[in-house]
Amino acid sequence: MLRYALMRVVGAIPTLFLVVLVAFIMVRAAPGGPFDTDRVLPAEVAANIERAYHLDEPLPQQFRRYLTGVLRGDFGPSFRYSDYSVAELIRGALPVSVKLGVLAMALALCAGISAGLVAALRRNTLTDRVVSAIAMTGVSVPVIVIAPLLVLFFAVQLGWLPAGWSSSGGGSRWIMPIIALALPQIGFIARITRSSMIEVLESEFIRTARAQGLATATIVRYHAMKPALLPLLSYLGPAIAGIVTGAIVVEQIFGIPGLGRLFVQGAQNRDFTLVLGLVILYATVIILLNLVVDLLYGVLDPRVRRT
Amino acid sequence: MLMRQTGARSRHRLWVALLALLVLVAGITLLVDELQEVPAPPLSVLNRSLVTEPESLDPHKVRTKQAGDVLRDIGEGLTGYTESGELIPTGAERWEISDDGLSYRFYLRPDARWSNGDAVTAEHYVYSFRRLIDPATAAFYAEVLIDLENAPAIIAGDSPVDALGVEATGEFELTIRLMRRVPYFLSLLTNPAAYPVHPESVRKYGDAYARAGNLPSNGAYKLSNWVVGSVIELVRNEMYRDNANTAIDAVNHHVVTDGVAELNRYRAGELDITSNVPPDAFAEVRRERPGELRVSPYLSVYFYGFNLTRPPFRDNVALRKALSMAIDREELVEKITGRGEQAAYGWVPPGVLDYEPREFFYASFDKHEREAAAERMYNEAGFDRERPAEIELRYNTADVTERIALAIQAMWRDVLGLEAKLINEEQQVLLSNIRAMEVTQVFRAAWTGDYNDANSFLYLFKSDSPSNLFGYRNVEFDALLEQAANQTDPTRRRFFLEEADRVLLADHPVMPIYFYVSKHLVSPRVRGWGDNVLDYHYSQYLSLADRS
Known about the structure:
The complex is a heterodimer of chains A (307) and B (548). Chain A is flat, with a radius of gyration of 24 Å. Chain A is 78% helix and 0% strand. Chain A is mainly alpha-helical. Chain A has a domain at 93-258: MetI-like (MetI-like fold). In chain A, helix 9 runs parallel beside helix 10.
């Protein structure tokens, strides 16, 4: 398996190179530059700025310069935040985003699986309908609507939680963003768990187990749980993607200094180096996570491992 | 059977263990965060907001108003403003201006200190002005000092930086020499780009100069922490020359880009001052909190420009006039913007110092008269309802700009019978199209004065102005601005500026739509707030009443 993992990592290098190249071409193809505002600068001033950021060089040369920098671990200075390098900005934002994402994912898994199981076991009862309705709401109402509503209710009306990130240093500021980010995933996970659990409970081997007189709790724990959760594993990839993109909105609304916010601002400001740095980071993370999910499959499902 | 059972069970356990680990890690991170609860805040803290993150706190690298807002708290130049926007000496105690207006001698305050205790000397200003102009700095606002002797040559790299027209003629005496008269020079010096930097710290820290811990302040506050994307925290600068009059101990500039989020945070009591009020919530806020809403004229104009280098607007002043006259500006500011904006019938906003802005001849017309005149003008331009002009209107993608574009499209349809094609573009795309002057016809933009003087608006239209986005060329206009610049007598200068304004409006290179207002929510506990046309609100002039 180690050999397989290594092969995959090595195979990712050309992919990453392509990602960087395409991203570089795309950010440069977008009209407008990082230093354009309503105000047009005197030609000499503009030329000095371009020279300082090597924007006066031909594009292939700029790409070569960028790539050699990246290989040395230097992602260049941010074009917008001139006091910081891209690496520094990402170093500052990464832990915040990772924490937010991991916590939201953990909440989504715990809450989603529990809700799905309960709904599956109490199939067609009131509980099932309530859970399904809530899950459906979570899936269909976008974060951009949920988040301000949460703020309005818990921060403005009740005053229990801070409305914005920087207003408090404590743990309370994490609560609403995590819930807002996890809600849609809770919905998806609950629905997947419920339907696959129902399917498993109806299968032959469960019927056999029941015929042997095993208690429902034992059946669920030892026989039904694992096959029921397998489809969830293949949903983990999309779930992570959902958390990453959802975080962009959540970070914007709550004012959280994470990667998503940097990405949005970077794109708006045409902060070329910052956007490229983030693209490389995201691409690497996604490639790695896909690898982890594939390896997990092997652990959980012997059929995959053999092939 | 038994074997399979244990195998399944152990794998099942792995899965559970993995999940448990995830939850555990999550729980611990939360707990650690909880334990790091911030210490008790100092006595009085002001929470205000910025709509965008300042790109830098190095005075020579900034370019946005938001960066300026923070710098005005942590720095000070030779001149500054009071809370109501009057120009006052700050870093300088007083000055003398030579009779020809070309030489300025500033007497610095000997008691001015950096937050590290060093005196702010004339040498520091010399170093800073040279650094701003130095091509290696690549300063965005180098323009502020471009009238100093040799500045353009230095910026172009043709002259060494020490040739700049600034000199320390004593420890606390600074002499500046200009190439031409600049009647608003003292206002220019209020720009943060003209603030001094601390030379030893710049040399020591280089690019990291403007970080918390490195950045010395000569203003009322100093930088204590900067979380990019979140908050800039300032604390009282005990060394500040006027520290005795600083009331608030700490100021947090929160970065809140979303208008609704900002309003919610204000409502939750987390912000004392907002940077804006979202258009959709304005009426509600005015009803709920009339005493907290501060709306004031602002030196900024929302306009539609014409590209004069291409048809149909090249050499067709009648068409330009017709389009402008067909717009019902009152209706736009009442029904769409609705936040106290003023319909613009001229280019220079009201409130500009010592100036009487000119207006279009139809400013006094009633709606009926104006529309009839618009149609006549349209016919004169060679168009009518049967043969309508084909017009493209480009604007940036944003809620209010979209609504205004739609309303103006409808007005042109009703009054002139022409169907303008609306093209909305992302802001940077629009800017680059406007500059290229290749595809644009009518374009939406805005202009904000850098200093309180009519020149800050009029110079845009000079033939050689880099910000002349219109392709406007008028020798008479250029000559009048030149003459204005050469006057020693303020009344005569004003006369030439107003004449230039008149010539400009007659040519209709632009359709001003409305003059902006600044809009803030200011908590009742904030005292000392002053409205002013530049929308500068120094924290050092504010104080806080006890929270009740």
